[in-house]
Amino acid sequence: MAASKKEKSFPQIAIVLGTRAELIKMAPVMRGLAKRGVAFLFIHTGQHGIDDLLSPLGVKKPDIVLEWTSDKRGRFGSQTAKALAWNVRNARKIGKILAQARPRVVVCHGDTMSTAAIATACKLYAPSAVLCHVEAGLRSHDLAEPFPEELSRRMTDLFSDVLFAPTSTAAANLSGVIYSGKKVFVTGNTNVDVLLENLPRARKMAVKLPKKPFVFAQMHRQENIRSRERCAAFVKLLGEIPAPVVLVFLENARKQFEKFGLMDKLYSAPNLLVNPNLPYLKFLKIFSNAACVVTDSGGQTEEAAVLKIPTVLFRKRNERQEAEQCGVAVRAGHDSAKALHFVKQALEKGEFYKRAKASKNPFGDGKAGARIAARLVMLAKG
Hints:
Layout: E1 13-17, H1 20-35, E2 41-44, H2 51-57, E3 64-65, H3 80-101, E4 105-109, H4 113-125, E5 130-134, H5 149-159, E6 162-165, H6 168-172, E7 183-186, H7 190-203, E8 215-218, H8 222-225, H9 228-240, E9 245-248, H10 251-259, H11 263-268, E10 272-275, H12 280-288, E11 292-295, H13 298-307, E12 311-313, H14 321-326, E13 329-331, H15 336-347, H16 351-357, H17 368-381
Parallel strand pairs: 1-2, 1-4, 2-3, 4-5, 5-6, 6-7, 8-9, 8-11, 9-10, 11-12, 12-13
């Protein structure tokens, strides 16, 4: 029987994303599908604004945008209860779209609140679809560090049918009994693809850089910025670094620093150059020229490993243990004195600097997106 003219036909693959970082890391997969002439439904949850990233990353506009957040920047509240309510409410809305589109394959990425909502929605509203998790298997082995990311990634891995692990370490985390029957593929991390593709363009950009050597810094994780002690230690560290520091100061961190009364001390440090969130290519230009990175960002940990930049992790736990194992990163916890020691080693080209420069990137060869796209095409064909 012929289908009704009123029925809309949707692609067999649905890619659902919420944050800027997810789009950056999924761009190689999306381009990989486009190169094969394979259509996909692109659903954006609206957690972050992404319009400025679409053209630089070479990806199409979302087919569906669900703007459920309280403002255009996607701030869903500061309380855990509000975040959980956001997750439940939006999982229902994602689910209704998936139920209507009926894709054969649903793809999500990473460990954000959107990721958990997508995984939940797929299992409840589109149970026959194959749920694929890109960047699966990362573990800090501590539900509170980071929160809610560690909980979100574990839940998504549990619900997913196909797990694209970036490294063998991540794949090993998916070998337990609860993951039996799931398909696990080691692909490399798509973040490496994006960096290698865009680094030549970024290096050609006319961006004024601080006097070298300089340090790149960022802190944004909820478990860090919600702690007065950790924020104060971070400000103390940055002010004591004997070199210029480019600080990317995201809005969520700024609000907390204001709440804790740390803004005057932050802005009074003569070595600090404070910036809001940077466009990706400008970020890459500055980041790639840094002598040292101080961060709590997982993505920046991967990027620094590719570029062999000594990286001080201002974190209690780290789900990218490979960076520490290869020597490019050290974890300082929230000890400003310990962190400063390693920053100075990097600036003075000491032992830590030498280890980082001799390290081998453990996160992939820049072909992860193509591998994942090829696998998605096979899954879509059944």
